[in-house]
Each structure stands twice: as C-alpha cells, then as structure tokens.
Amino acid sequence: MVALPAILLGLAPFVPEPHLWEKLKMLAAGTLHRPIDIFDLLLHGVPVVLLLIKLIRGERESA
Length: 63
Hints:
Oligomer: single chain
Distance between the termini: 22 Å
C-alpha cells in the first residue's frame, strides 16, 4: 500500500528532476531554508521513509 505513493511522490515531477532529489541536493548544500522547500521535502520524502520502515520491519519479523 505504501510502495505506489512512495514511488509516485518520490519521483514527481518526472521532468526536469524529481522534487525529492532536488530538495536532498539543497539539504546537502545547506540551501534548504524556505519553509515551502522544507514542506516539499517532507511531502515527497515521508512516503519513501515509511516504505523503508515497513521493509526493515518486515525483514526483522521474517528472520
């Protein structure tokens, strides 16, 4: 249930570059200051983080 939103929001918009990638580059460069940019990072990043958490928890439960 989390995989589709994580893929779609993580990669949207597809052209010229995904918002998540753009915001992560801004975070690494130290230029992520505007509230809209921080909100955008959270909006596009939360589904990816939830997917990773579910995958990690699933691995632990099956082991």
